Amino acid sequence: TSGKALAGKRALVTAGPTHEPIDPVRYIANRSSGKQGFAIAAALAEAGADVTLVAGPVALATPAGVSRIDVETAAEMAAAVEAALPADVAVMVAAVADWRTDGAEQKIKKSGDAPPTLSLIENPDILASLAANARRPALLIGFAAETQDVMTHAVVKRAHKGADWIVANDVSGDVMGGDRNSVHIVTAGGIESWPSASKDDVARRLVARIADALGASV
Ligand code: C5P
């Protein structure tokens, strides 16, 4: 082996938003630059892991040594995640749209009457499905972007989704699209709050923690 901490380990990362078409020219999306997820994929690859990055629509270059699969919708992301299994660790960073519409085949036209009503259908929860999958990765990590009561929501989310860890971040400031992040790591053992750092440094620190948890030497 290369002597790197995660050599021989398979890692799966989701990143970016999903786009759910309303019609051929419009979509519903979450706000996500993909920067934190791409930084984590890069750090995992640097640590020697075999990394599959399932990316929603973002304007970012593929990190060195990472296999990237581009998707648009939550349904496509769920299928790509399933196809990428097995994995030793999965880090679900994507801001998946919670709802989709039926998706009109033709552009919806302004009629001069009442505006159209969107009827929303719930998307599959990719993280929760992976937690229940027979091929669940040994270490399953979710993210939680919150604007208030960050840690309380993260503790509840960890239990509810069946993740091992939840990385919680307060996105009420300028985290969205920015280069820095301050996170809380929620595990079975409690909560660790990390100081504000660049998204690259948060990624490297998280990957060191992952290597530790997978029993690799760091
Ligand atoms: O419930 P919420 O969207 O806040 O949960 C965030 C976590 O769940 C993230 O790890 C995100 O990638 C994941 N998620 C998912 N599929 C969804 C919604 C969220 O994998 N449909």
Automatic annotation (TrEMBL):
<feature type="binding site">
    <location>
        <position position="157"/>
    </location>
    <ligand>
        <name>CTP</name>
    </ligand>
</feature>
<feature type="region of interest" description="Phosphopantothenate--cysteine ligase">
    <location>
        <begin position="11"/>
        <end position="218"/>
    </location>
</feature>
<dbReference type="GO" id="GO:0004632">
    <property type="term" value="F:phosphopantothenate--cysteine ligase activity"/>
</dbReference>
<protein>
    <recommendedName>
        <fullName>Coenzyme A biosynthesis bifunctional protein CoaBC</fullName>
        <ecNumber>4.1.1.36</ecNumber>
        <ecNumber>6.3.2.5</ecNumber>
    </recommendedName>
</protein>
<comment type="pathway">
    <text>Cofactor biosynthesis; coenzyme A biosynthesis; CoA from (R)-pantothenate: step 2/5.</text>
</comment>
<feature type="binding site">
    <location>
        <position position="98"/>
    </location>
    <ligand>
        <name>CTP</name>
    </ligand>
</feature>
<keyword id="KW-0436">Ligase</keyword>
<keyword id="KW-0210">Decarboxylase</keyword>
<comment type="similarity">
    <text>In the N-terminal section; belongs to the HFCD (homo-oligomeric flavin containing Cys decarboxylase) superfamily.</text>
</comment>
<feature type="binding site">
    <location>
        <begin position="124"/>
        <end position="127"/>
    </location>
    <ligand>
        <name>CTP</name>
    </ligand>
</feature>
<keyword id="KW-0511">Multifunctional enzyme</keyword>
<comment type="function">
    <text>Catalyzes two sequential steps in the biosynthesis of coenzyme A. In the first step cysteine is conjugated to 4'-phosphopantothenate to form 4-phosphopantothenoylcysteine. In the second step the latter compound is decarboxylated to form 4'-phosphopantotheine.</text>
</comment>
<dbReference type="GO" id="GO:0004633">
    <property type="term" value="F:phosphopantothenoylcysteine decarboxylase activity"/>
</dbReference>
<keyword id="KW-0288">FMN</keyword>
<comment type="pathway">
    <text>Cofactor biosynthesis; coenzyme A biosynthesis; CoA from (R)-pantothenate: step 3/5.</text>
</comment>
<comment type="function">
    <text>Catalyzes two steps in the biosynthesis of coenzyme A. In the first step cysteine is conjugated to 4'-phosphopantothenate to form 4-phosphopantothenoylcysteine, in the latter compound is decarboxylated to form 4'-phosphopantotheine.</text>
</comment>
<feature type="domain" description="DNA/pantothenate metabolism flavoprotein C-terminal">
    <location>
        <begin position="6"/>
        <end position="212"/>
    </location>
</feature>
<keyword id="KW-0460">Magnesium</keyword>
<feature type="binding site">
    <location>
        <position position="161"/>
    </location>
    <ligand>
        <name>CTP</name>
    </ligand>
</feature>
<keyword id="KW-0285">Flavoprotein</keyword>
<keyword id="KW-0479">Metal-binding</keyword>
<feature type="binding site">
    <location>
        <position position="107"/>
    </location>
    <ligand>
        <name>CTP</name>
    </ligand>
</feature>
<feature type="binding site">
    <location>
        <position position="143"/>
    </location>
    <ligand>
        <name>CTP</name>
    </ligand>
</feature>
<comment type="similarity">
    <text>In the C-terminal section; belongs to the PPC synthetase family.</text>
</comment>
<keyword id="KW-0456">Lyase</keyword>
